[in-house]
Design goal:
The protein is α/β, with parallel strands linked by helices. 35% of the residues lie in helices and 20% in strands. Helix 7 links the parallel strand 9 and strand 10.
């Protein structure tokens, strides 16, 4: 259908990628066509991120790229950047600005604004999608499934609650059905995503608080046949006994937890408005090790937070080493004007932040290599979800989060008669 081709450019987290995937499905269902290679789009949609100031720079570059690649297209700018900073509308050129969420209304608005006389397409909320499309992925391997949105924590450095709003969870029946559909069309691993995953169904007005994250994971496993379940991130405060026990009792629950630390000093944690101290954090890590000692524990760390001294940085590094994290995601402090941390005294220089980031990333590389070596020593066979196949080799994800590249000759499909390709589940020997 000429004049109705779209392309979505997505920045940021897996939640953003999921939202872009859902918008894509709604536009397809409403009669639009996704731009193919070699074509020009009639509509470009840039789904933005606002997690750091550097993200805003990337947002601008992506907007320029979308316009450059599709010079005559109508432009939609949506997402967290516009939600937190609506004033950008005065300085940026776009045909439509949209904040976060309400994707049915966005799809309808695109049709009504750009094609008001076209009667051939159904409203997005009336149309039915033809199936599951992988959000933000071109290959069928892991399916990212958003189960909740919003955050009530208001850490002093973070703009996400201003962008995503308060906690709200999707109905469990809807989530489970989407997981079942994902397995039906060929996915063998789902990654549960959200802004504050551990508080699934824990809103103040929730009438189903007993149906928490651990309950949901068990329900997904019960309703599916082979599907492996991973969670993208979990706050240490939300690691209750039921969730930790899944590591021991559920074979299809991946042995990997991403638990943000952010700072390895109690004074820094207080200034960040993080609701735990190092003693509590350590105790929870020990509980995980007792349940399943091989579990990969990855984390986020902010360096260069306002007032962070050399002594505090050294203390953080020592705590990281003692805790035995498998891998670090290191973030230099980003000064969001609308957060309390932006107004704190003793802001550190970019040079100090770069140096400390470099030091922790070097430590992360070492930790990650050591962890993989240790796991491979004690385990020679792995259940793998294939991410890509090139020639006689495949690259696949282990339940412990790291990838393996193996010859096809060392891998056996776990599904009778199934070809080894992206999305397949195989047994691999190292």
């Amino acid at each position: 259908m000429p004049g109705r081709k779209f392309k979505i450019y997505t920045l940021g987290c897996k939640v953003n990628q999921y939202d872009s995937g859902q918008l894509k499905n709604k536009l397809l269902a409403a009669g639009f066509l996704e731009k193919r290679k070699g074509e020009l789009a009639d509509i470009v949609i840039v789904n933005t991120c606002s997690v750091t100031k550097n993200a805003h720079r990337k947002d601008r570059l992506m907007l320029k790229k979308a316009k450059r690649e599709n010079p005559d297209a109508k432009v939609v700018l949506m997402g967290c950047w516009y939600k937190v900073y609506p004033e950008i509308e005065e300085n940026l050129k776009a045909d439509l600005f949209w904040p976060v969420g309400n994707l049915d209304a966005l799809a309808d608005t695109i049709k009504e604004k750009f094609y008001p006389t076209d009667k051939t397409a159904a409203p997005a909320h009336q149309a039915v999608s033809g199936g599951i499309n992988p959000p933000g992925q071109g290959e069928r391997s892991r399916y990212f499934l958003k189960i909740q949105d919003g955050c009530n924590q208001f850490c002093s450095y973070c703009a996400i609650p201003y962008a995503r709003g308060r906690l709200r969870s999707r109905p469990w029946e809807e989530v489970v059905q989407e997981a079942v559909q994902a397995e039906r069309v060929g996915y063998r691993e789902i990654v549960l995503t959200g802004i504050h995953l551990g508080l699934y169904n824990q809103e103040k007005n929730s009438l189903q608080k007993e149906k928490d994250l651990a309950w949901l994971i068990r329900k997904i496993i019960q309703r599916t046949n082979q599907l492996r379940v991973r969670i993208s991130s979990i706050e240490v405060n939300d690691l209750n006994e039921n969730l930790i026990s899944l590591l021991k009792t559920e074979k299809r629950f991946c042995k990997h937890l991403h638990i943000p630390l952010q700072g390895g000093d109690n004074q820094l944690l207080q200034k960040m408005n993080r609701p735990y101290d190092l003693t509590f954090f350590s105790e929870k890590i020990n509980e995980i090790r007792q349940a399943e000692k091989k579990t990969a524990i990855t984390t986020d760390v902010i360096v260069g937070f306002p007032g962070e001294t050399e002594e505090q940085f050294a203390k953080s590094k020592k705590f990281i080493q003692q805790t035995g994290f498998s891998k670090l995601h290191v973030f230099p402090f980003s000064r969001h004007e609308k957060t309390p941390a932006a107004k704190m005294p003793n802001q550190l220089s970019q040079q100090i932040k770069r140096e400390r980031s470099r030091e922790l990333r070097a430590l992360s590389d070492k930790l990650w290599q050591n962890y993989q070596t240790e796991i491979k020593k004690g385990q020679k066979e792995f259940t793998l979800v294939v991410e890509s196949v090139k020639g006689k080799y495949l690259t696949a994800k282990t339940e412990y989060y790291f990838n393996l590249r193996l010859p096809l000759s060392r891998c056996q499909s776990l599904e009778q008669g199934e070809k080894i390709e992206s999305g397949a589940m195989v047994l691999g020997k190292v």
